[in-house]
Amino acid sequence: MSEDNYAVVLSCCASCGVTEVDDIKLMECAACDLARYCSDECLKDHIPQHKEACKKRMAELRDELLFRQPESSHLGDCPICMTPLSLDLSTKSIVTSCCSKEICNGCNYANQKREFEGKLERKCPFCRKLAPSTMDEVDKQTMKRIEANDPVAMRQWGREQYIKGNYSRAFEYLTKAAELGDITAHDSLSCMYHNGQGVEKDRGKEIYHMEEAAIGGHPKARHNLGVYEVNRGWIERGVKHFIIAANLGLEQSMEDLPVSYSIGNDSKELVSQEDLVGVRRAYQATIDATKSPQREAAEMWRKGLELRGRDELELAI
Questions:
Q1: How far apart are CA 186 and CA 176, in angstroms?
Q2: Beta-carbon neighbour count of residue 35 at 10 Å?
Q3: 45-57 pLDDT, tens per residue?
Q4: CA distances (Å), origin 23, targets 8, 107, 217, 226
Q5: What's residue 311's pLDDT?
Q6: Cα 246 to chain center, whole Å?
């Protein structure tokens, strides 16, 4: 259908054909962009005729959203130095309990160094509140953020409950966090639906939350979607997911990206050498963007502490 014909169709009620004028306003189908109606009655009357086209268009719109390359990962930038956060959360960032901010190791290190040299009280590097000295204080701050409907705090608390084995409680908090837009919570819920932890196993809901996380820029969820698609034989779709995840800086997707596959004696190229070079460049550019002199200094300091602790342990033995 041409753009002109499409515009004409949308200017009329898909059921009775009445044209939109000053006193008649048409409402769009809630699920797709193919039809508009002048009343609820016309919408109900047209459902049997519109159902198949609507379902097909819904799938197309979902794929357009699903395969769109996010501008950055779900982590975004450090709120202090405004440099993209690394995907390696275990050693390269912290989440504060007082304000629920994800702070990079570089800014956290710089703040700790300033406080040590100036003999200052320990404070949050972002909101400057006094740092908690006990786990009870951390829990109180987290619960205060939860009461303020902070999705990050809800997700963090949910993950703590998960680690403790309280899956039902974890599911409750992660669900609330996901409803408030937390991308990591969607990924965690996908895993819980897959494993049947705190909820019955549900393949449909597992894939839904995996897709929501991928759309939000979660590279690991995107990679898992790629594995899912490849395993069910939709290899081209899987390759698209791997490429998007690699562009977001996920090394596993870069390594696992299939460039071709064979069916019998026939071989089909999935990614051209030119495109593969482009993906590698995008992957490396994303990794490089997360680096800074301050973060490198923090990493050297962390490794130094590990070595010193190991030496002290060996001496004690």
A1: 10
A2: 24
A3: 999 999 999 999 9
A4: 18, 59, 43, 49
A5: 52
A6: 14
